[in-house]
Design goal:
This protein is an alpha/beta fold. It is about 45% helix and about 15% strand. The strands form 5 sheets. A 6-stranded parallel beta sheet has the order 3-2-1-4-5-8, sandwiched between helices. A 3-stranded parallel beta sheet has the order 6-9-13.
Length: about 325
Amino acid sequence: MKNVLVIGSTGQIGSELTMKIRRMIPEGNVVAGYIKGAEPKGELLESGPAAEADVCNGEQLLEVVKKYDIDTIYNLAALLSAVAERKPQLAWHIQIDGLMNILEIARDNHCAVFTPSSIGSFGPETPRKDTPQDTIQRPRSMYGCTKVATELLSDYYFHKYGVDTRSVRFPGLISNVTLPGGGTTDYAVEIYYAAVKGEEFVCPIAPGTFMDMMYMPDALKAAVDIMNADPSRLIHRNSFNIASMSFDPEILKAKITEHIPGFKMRYEVDPVRQAIAESWPDKMDDSCARAEWDWKPSYDLEGMTVDMIDALRKKLL
């Protein structure tokens, strides 16, 4: 990677990923791609080039790719799971029609493409524990349907046209920098904010609902490492299971309470998010990622909790 376009650079993942890649390759162009109404600000704007890059506007994307001689595209444009259920047609338009624009541009301009998948690509028929790399994927959410389609399209363009497509299936992501935007796993970020501020947390996910989660530094590492991986070692491409930790709301509350005694939580279960959560794996088997490109997370629940609380205290108090 030398000249990189991060589409969705102001989102939960993109804002941190853009800065990470800029620090890695300061001599290159790492372009913060955005859409109108979500322009980059502060350090993200001041530390490198930015350009409007709407995945649904192929001509605009092509202009950015040519202007900055882009060799790698990180396609992070998406509506997250709960939002996609309310706006299914828009979700498809962004996540599938948009991806087709990117893949065609990558095909003609020799770009590598990263389009993340998700635990949302699985469904209720998928084995929930130690979910295999290759298994049944029959999601019942629009978000999940689009993620399965992005995996298939990305593999198609690799096998048919030689486009260097790679991706990972992200678990729920927890960050102390950017707030989430409508995902089923958002509670695992919001609970830390409530705890640090001394507020009672109202949990939308029922006790006993286990889901894979990951601290953002590990997610960013995975997104970079997969694109830098030796292609001769890759048996899979789209998309690799990656895992770090799995817990339910009660386990998370107990861990936070170890560090913030007296923290309180009650439940008001959101039926839409709960239904989605129950269709997802409890824990994915990421042995293929470990074998093919040496994936290994750095944070467990304890390490993440200590770091989250420390960072949020500095940010909020």
